[in-house]
Design goal:
single chain; mainly alpha; 9 helices
Length: 142
């Protein structure tokens, strides 16, 4: 079960938080990060299994718990803004194969905005946040 949880967590990170993926790889801390996250969730997994929950439900609930602090994804938010508001640039970056790299750079460029406006599930749809991010993306792309 631990191996499956590590694989699921890594797949989630790769698709939703590539900026974290790159940081973990740079620091050579992928294994440690995954092991710590999985170790922290094992008591919950044991409890769910003792309640005779099916394995697939247990795995899904554990993955949700392990990724709670990774949501909402700044990467997916920025990708959405870029695709909707800057579609020519989005297509250009996608075709050149640099979309993920540039989105990770954009996360860093927008970090202060995300922190000041408290990016969270509750304000993900906040227009002020979106406009601030659009302005920063426009500045980045120039």
């Amino acid at each position: 079960m631990q191996t499956v949880l590590k694989e699921k967590l890594w797949a989630y990170i790769v698709h939703h938080n590539p900026d974290l993926m790159f940081r973990l790889q740079e620091d050579y801390s992928v294994t440690r990060y995954l092991e710590e996250k999985v170790a922290g969730i094992l008591p919950m997994a044991a409890e769910l299994l003792s309640e005779n929950r099916p394995m697939y439900i247990t795995l899904e609930l554990c993955l949700n718990a392990m990724t709670e602090d990774l949501r909402p994804s700044r990467y997916l938010y920025l990708r959405s803004v870029l695709e909707e508001e800057f579609s020519p640039d989005y297509e250009r970056l996608k075709e050149s194969g640099t979309l993920t790299y540039e989105l990770c750079n954009l996360i860093e460029a927008c970090k202060e905005i995300f922190e000041e406006l408290g990016f969270s599930r509750e304000n993900e749809e906040n227009r002020l946040l979106r406009y601030a991010i659009i302005g920063q993306v426009q500045e980045y792309l120039v």
